[in-house]
Amino acid sequence: MKRTAFTLIELLVVITIISMILAVLLPTLNRVKQSAKTVLCGSNLKQLYLSLAAYEQENRTLPHGFNDSINFTSPPAGGYPGDASKDKQGIWWFQTFPDRNKESFDQKSIAWCPSNSLRNIQLRNNILCGNYGINRSVCKDSEGVAGFVGSDFVGKPLNLSSINNPAETLLLVDSGYSIISWRGASNMPGPLFDNLLRESSFYIPGIPANKDRSLLPEFSEDVLEGRHPNRTVNIIFADGHLARTKADELFVEEIGGSFKNRSLLWLPK
Q1: Is residue 172 situated within a structural domain?
Q2: Is the pLDDT of residue 204 over 60?
Q3: Closest CA to 41 of 241, 266, 250, 228
Q4: How much is the CA Rg of the chain, to the nearest whole Å?
Q5: What is the pLDDT of residue 64?
């Protein structure tokens, strides 16, 4: 009589073989997926740069990183980003683009990093957290922001032509918050972000020194492990070129009162 079914042993052998194949393939597939997200992240940054350049061409200056100096009679188109109980209310740099539309806050837009690794759903749905940060030494906050005394972060934003070394000056980067500065990449003690309600989200993901900072647990994976393979970050420099580098290359180390790696990378000269 002709056999029409597998025996139990044959089934177990097939299942074992399939399991072994999956065990080999899944890590590879995951690496391919992460690499694809990293490439898309870089594409987003390039498009953001083009929007910033278009804004500068129209206004002869880059936008403020954050602007609350205007008395708004009603929320801007698309509303105020973030959580009103934890984030300042005003105009953020990505809201100023000439080509911005109502989809700007959609999570499929260029303002959202595809490798965002925040697990907390409220943070993940907050465009200000876990996506891209603009260098506050270039796109400064408005005069209405209570910044540090003598800060490099408050005042009139720069224009691209005023930056003497644009190919070496960071403009946009993978970031824990929508505005970033060298303080968020340093080993300086004490408060690193002048909005006390959101001070713990001011970081470059994957810098080893982050482990010594007081950061909220819900940011821990992004903070410590980074969001791209090998703890790398994508950067757009002021001349528009894209680079991918180890997060630790952005670290600003304080040694005897001086700061290694702060200029030209973070402070335009």
Answers
A1: yes
A2: yes
A3: 228
A4: 22
A5: 93
Amino acid at 136: R
Q: Is residue 1 part of a domain?
A: no
Q: Are 110 and 48 in contact (CB under 8 A)?
A: yes
Q: 109: alpha, beta or left, given left = phi > 0 and alpha = psi -120 to 50?
A: beta
Q: How many CA atoms lie within 13 A of 124 on its CB side?
A: 12
> Which pLDDT tens digit goes with each residue over 160-179?
999 999 999 999 999 999 99
- Smallest Cα–Cα separation from 144: which of 72, 222, 57? 72
Q: Which residue from 226, 221, 268, 264 is spatially nearest to 246, judged by alpha carbons? A: 226
Question: Which domain range does residue 76 map to?
Answer: 8-260
| Dist. CA 140–CA 259, nearest whole Å | 20
Averaged over 76-91, what is the pLDDT? 82
Q: Which of 71, 86, 163 is nearest to 128 (CA)?
A: 86
Q: Has residue 265 been placed in a domain? A: no
The predicted structure's pLDDT at residue 172: 98
Q: Give the pLDDT band (50/70/90) at residue 148.
A: very low
